[in-house]
Amino acid sequence: MTPERRVLLVTGTSTGIGQTTAVRAAAAGWRVAATMRDPSRDGALRDAARRAGVEVEVLPLDVTDPGSVAGCFDAVRETYGRLDALVNNAGISNFDATMEMSTLEALRTAIEVNFVGAVAVSRLAMPLLRASGGRLVSIGSVHGVVGQPFNEAYAAAKFALEGFMESLAPVAAAHGVAVSVVVPGYVSDTEFGRFPDINRRTIQADSGPYAATFGDYVRWVVEEGWEGAAQSRWEVADVVVRTLADPRPPFRVPSSPWVRAYLADKLADVDGSAVQALARTWIGAAEPVPAH
């Protein structure tokens, strides 16, 4: 199959990593179906594609709506007749008050968009990917390997995504489909990477007995937490495109040397004590709470 004929579907392309991945992949020779919940928000994507001298095709897709997912794949079959790769990128951030002060609705929304939506799209993509011997790549997060305070729902969704794809990967490989999870860290030039002060003050005001702890965590994030860790969405998109082209892609693909080192500490921490000790320093509680 010549590069010009390979078809790639990318979810969540109105902004951020998804938008940039669509453009970078098109520049690498893929025919890109760029999906977004609201196609009227395609202006930034089309501007970026124009600047790069490439074309992308926009399709509507709400990953939480079964009818929208089915309609998108009807369009893929009708328009392209094949699918060679899927990048699950659509997602929402959930930097929020801790569990007790948040809501079950917020938890369900985070799980539905960041996890169940990716599964719903992958289910309908799989027959096409089996036919083409294709690739299924999902955008994970360091928060899906190392849990973050006040990111509980988002971390839960990304943990679930990684576990699901890790379980799927050997079965898919037996049928010719390579499954990978690209794991970014702090991406500074996306909506996920920006946290306006008004949001911080609103969440802190709603945090009740956890307000001081939330304040300590935000100070750590701003002053030292991601020092040396930041990378651009363009760098992450390039990792995704290289993963799509890799003849034998690994399952877990860290997006930078910093991410690789960060994950290595967690994956070697068999009983969890090292990560818990580290996380306590993020919230100004270096020592564990004594048992009663």
Summarize the model shown.
With 292 residues, the protein is α/β, with parallel strands linked by helices. It is built from ten helices and seven strands.
- One letter per element, helices H and strands E, the order comes to EHEHEHEHEHEHHHEHH
- Average pLDDT: 91
Mind telling me the CATH class?
Alpha Beta
Largest sheet: 7 strands, parallel
Distinct helical segment count: 10
The residue ranges in which pLDDT falls below 50 over 5 or more consecutive positions are none
| CATH architecture descriptor name | 3-Layer(aba) Sandwich
CATH superfamily: NAD(P)-binding Rossmann-like Domain
Beta-strand portion reads 5-15%
- Compute the separation of the termini in Å: 65 Å
Please name the CATH topology: Rossmann fold
Total domains, how many?
Answer: 1
Derived structural class: alpha/beta
Roughly how much helix do the residues carry, as a percent range? Answer: 40-55%
Which shape, going by the Cα principal axes?
globular
